[in-house]
């Protein structure tokens, strides 16, 4: 998958923006955005610029930023950040108290690995 296709999806999820919300703000269909994210279709430069604007990132960040990959020993540049976006999505659905509890658990895990 090309970097920018995956970056659209990952940045959208990290910002907790639903696909339909982004599609609506871009005045495109849900299906068109889905095809951009999957790499089935390529947006033109005007649309890429609009996507970057709606996601509050630069066009360069959207198309050229290296993707992060989660590995056992931490984050690395690579191809897939899908589970980072999933983690962020799950955390966004939790109450602030539950988010703090999860953070405390994660800190304990990090401390036990040092």
Q: How would you describe the overall organization of this protein?
A:
The chain is mainly α and 114 residues long. Helix content is 65%, strand content 9%. The protein has helices at 3-14, 19-26, 30-38, 45-55, 59-64, 82-92, 96-112; strands spanning 67-71, 74-78. The chain has a two-stranded antiparallel sheet. Strand 1 and strand 2 (74-78) form a beta hairpin. The radius of gyration is 16 Å and the shape is elongated. Residues 68-72 and 75-79 have low confidence and may be disordered.
Any chance you could write out the topology, listing elements then pairs?
Layout: H1 3-14, H2 19-26, H3 30-38, H4 45-55, H5 59-64, E1 67-71, E2 74-78, H6 82-92, H7 96-112
Helix pairs in contact: 1-6, 2-3
Overall outline:
elongated
Taking all Cα atoms into account, the compactness measure Rg is 16 Å
Tell me roughly what share of residues is in helical segments.
Answer: 55-70%
* Number of strand segments: 2
- Strand-and-helix sequence, N→C? HHHHHEEHH
Structural class: mainly alpha
Mean pLDDT: 78
The side-by-side strand order for the widest beta sheet comes to 1-2
CA(first)-CA(last) distance: 35 Å
Task: State which percent range the strand residues make up.
Answer: 5-15%
Tally of contiguous helical segments: 7
> Sheet with the most strands?
2 strands, antiparallel
Low-confidence segments, ≥5 residues, pLDDT <50?
68-72, 75-79
């Amino acid at each position: 998958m090309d970097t920018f296709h995956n970056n659209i999806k990952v940045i959208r999820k990290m910002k907790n923006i639903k696909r339909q919300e982004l599609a609506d703000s871009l005045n495109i269909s849900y299906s068109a955005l889905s095809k951009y994210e999957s790499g089935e279709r390529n947006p033109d430069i005007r649309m890429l610029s609009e996507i970057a604007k709606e996601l509050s990132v630069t066009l360069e960040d959207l198309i050229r930023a290296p993707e992060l990959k989660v590995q056992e020993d931490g984050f690395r540049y690579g191809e897939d950040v899908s589970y980072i976006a999933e983690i962020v999505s799950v955390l966004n659905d939790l109450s602030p108290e539950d988010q703090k509890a999860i953070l405390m658990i994660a800190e304990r895990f990090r401390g036990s690995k040092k």
